[in-house]
TrEMBL record:
Membrane listed as a keyword: no
Family stated for the protein in its record: Belongs to the peptidase M20 family.
SUPFAM superfamilies given in the database record: Bacterial exopeptidase dimerisation domain, Zn-dependent exopeptidases
Record's keyword terms, sorted: Hydrolase
One Pfam family named in its UniProt record: Peptidase_M20
Protein name listed in UniProt: Allantoate amidohydrolase
Keyword Hydrolase listed: yes
Length: 390
């Protein structure tokens, strides 16, 4: 299965993946998933947003369903493992359960949620948010990508229904850090997700000539932007290595000319912290420093939240049960967002499994997990699912 997926959507000089939602490469992956599900005699359900669940419903299976899976979309020039590892491992775990002779007494589903990364329409975990009712279709249908296409141009609607009667969700994911490397463990369990958000920073100045305009006569929003980036970095570092994260990874400049002072700079801040209070304080400080700098530069600054997720604590009873089942695997937090966090916030008992990433690098072509560790993840996931569907 991994060999099937490896070439799809690979592009760019760095060898990363471009698998944005509803583009040909992501749709090819979605079709591949349906083929894999049907080859296993699973019953495929797809909602109006494109979220998909492949159900294993043996005769007599009843009660709250068990769901696993992840996503197939990627960030721009992303790695191979973020998302697809969870989907492939879930299908492989179904194979393992059948090899073991396990017949689920509860329905078992393998899910693929769309637009988990928010790389096209800007809202992370968009598919799972719609599927759980965390956001309403009318509030997101107008979201647009960088070329102006709206979500409504791609899909006909969205809303709850696909996850009816789901009683537990377990997502396997490549670790996006080095915690398991330091613990010398191939697989770990997740304890929770840090609160995090995406914020749009709009800086407005005055377009002018780069040669004839004196430095002291300029209203240059690029200068305000540069100082805000440095201020955000400093504020995040003040909390120490395990405290805060602040990243400006995307910027749009108008008119974007080499010999022109820009009139507008629009940039996006990704901020994360160990608590919701700490996140709010971090963002407020960055905003204040941006506004103060703008006043000195003769520009204006405004910060607008676009996607904010609160802290998530995975179900302690479920996580403890699985830790005992799997022989005391390490339980670690993550600062990365996941569909599991959305389902947990919706009240579905949720747990996560992480597979060791030897590079510690993610959202990059250098993201990696060894085949022995991936297979250990499949076995752990199969053990968990066997326990939950019994």
């Amino acid at each position: 299965m991994w060999a099937d997926l490896a070439p799809i959507g690979r592009a760019g000089r760095a060898g990363g993946y471009f698998r944005q939602p509803f583009t040909p490469s992501e749709r090819e992956l979605a079709a591949w998933f349906v083929e894999q599900a049907l080859a296993r005699d699973l019953e495929v359900a797809i909602d109006d947003t494109g979220n998909t669940v492949a159900w294993w419903r043996p005769e007599g299976a009843s009660g709250p369903a068990v769901l696993t899976g992840s996503h197939l979309d990627s960030v721009l020039e992303g790695g191979a493992f973020d998302g697809p590892l969870g989907v492939v491992s879930a299908l492989a775990a179904v194979d393992v359960l059948r090899e073991r002779g396990v017949t689920p007494s509860r329905p078992l589903g393998v899910s693929v949620f769309v637009e988990e990364e928010g790389s096209r329409f800007g809202l992370a975990c968009l598919g799972s948010r719609l599927a759980t009712g965390a956001v309403a279709w009318d509030d997101v249908r107008g979201l647009h990508d960088r070329r102006g296409a709206t979500l409504e141009d791609e899909v006909s609607g969205g809303g709850p229904g696909l996850l009816t009667d789901v009683g537990a969700f377990v997502e396997l994911h490549v670790e996006q850090g080095r915690d398991l490397v330091h613990r010398d463990a191939a697989v770990g369990l997740g304890s929770g997700i840090w609160p995090h958000g995406r914020y749009r920073l709009d800086l407005t100045g005055r377009a002018d000539h780069a040669g004839t305009t004196r430095m002291e006569d300029r209203a240059d929003p690029m200068l305000t932007y540069a100082m805000t980036v440095l201020a955000a970095n400093k504020q995040a570092r003040l909390a120490g290595s395990d405290g805060h994260r602040a990243t400006f990874g995307r910027v749009d400049v108008t008119p974007n000319g080499t010999n022109a002072v820009p009139s507008r700079v629009r940039a996006w801040l990704d901020a994360r912290a160990h608590s919701e209070e700490a996140l709010a304080a971090l963002v407020a400080t960055i905003e204040r420093q941006a506004v103060e700098r703008a006043e000195r530069d003769g520009t204006t600054a405004a910060l607008t939240p676009e996607s904010v997720s609160g802290a998530v604590q995975f179900d302690p009873a479920l996580t403890g049960r699985l830790a005992g089942l799997l022989g005391g695997l390490p339980v670690i937090p993550t600062a990365a967002g996941h569909d599991a966090g959305v389902l947990a916030a919706a009240g579905i008992p949720t747990a996560m499994l992480f597979v060791r990433n030897p590079t510690g690098v993610s959202h990059s072509p250098d993201e990696h997990a060894s085949m022995p560790d991936c297979l250990a993840g499949v076995e752990a996931l199969a053990d968990v699912l066997a326990e939950l569907v019994a």
